[in-house]
């Protein structure tokens, strides 16, 4: 498997602040690679160093097997970037904006026109090609931003929170588009504050905190790293403290809480945890309401590993 991005021992300081602390990261061809971390974890600094928009104090960055540098235009032509802040020209129409960005990379005018037409169709802006950006909704503006970044058909696409503040329909359209770009051969680096998006589309995920990579793997691999393996929720009108204590001592239960007529049980492995809990409650002849059993999510992984919420 070919390596598209290789970062080794990357260090970046802002005076006394250590933004990147000997970061190591490798991204393979054909991946949708999720990059997660709380605010201030170093994600944006990593991307800016990767693009040679920032200098760094130590380490190496290679893209497509070549050292990345500010003047390595051969590599830069193969990269598409869609940042969180929309970057388009308000004086140009949708079509003119995409033409402007595409022409920076594609000098053949006939090929450029073809690519622009394909990019407009790809993001579903055919009916808005002659609109000016100020006439577009937030979701359509995001789609335009993406079209400008991918029109030249880059091999590596960096998407930094492309679905911020868009409606659900546009979000789904954008996510479907990202998956399609990947199927067409693009390797994608994806950052987001929406954990469900990362779970939905990313093939491998890195979690950063304090400038370091603290976890790496598929969603399933990351979930196996944490203690929590099952979350059981049972609605109960009443539960005595003695019964709560007994439930806490059931096999594989490491935490049990009762609040607002709801029993929450956290388990760290094993099978039949729900059956054991229900058997105990039935033996005590306690009235039981709704019952839920849930496997841990990527959000549980993030909270346990970093101790922080992703959206803080």
Number of helices: 11
Helix content: 25-40%
The arrangement of helices and strands along the chain is EEEHEEHEHHHEHEHEEHEHEEHEH
Largest sheet: 6 strands, mixed
How far apart are the termini? 36 Å
| Mean pLDDT, all residues | 93
- Report strand %: 25-35%
Strand order in the sheet with the most strands:
6-7-8-3-9-10
Structure characterization notes:
The structure is a single chain. Helix content is 34%, strand content 28%. The protein is an alpha/beta fold and 312 residues long. The strands form three sheets. Strands 6-7-8-3-9-10 form a six-stranded mixed beta sheet, with helices on both faces. A four-stranded antiparallel beta sheet has the order 2-1-4-5, covered by helices on one side. A four-stranded antiparallel beta sheet has the order 12-13-11-14, covered by helices on one side. The longest helix has 16 residues, at 168-183. The model has no long low-confidence stretch (mean pLDDT 93).
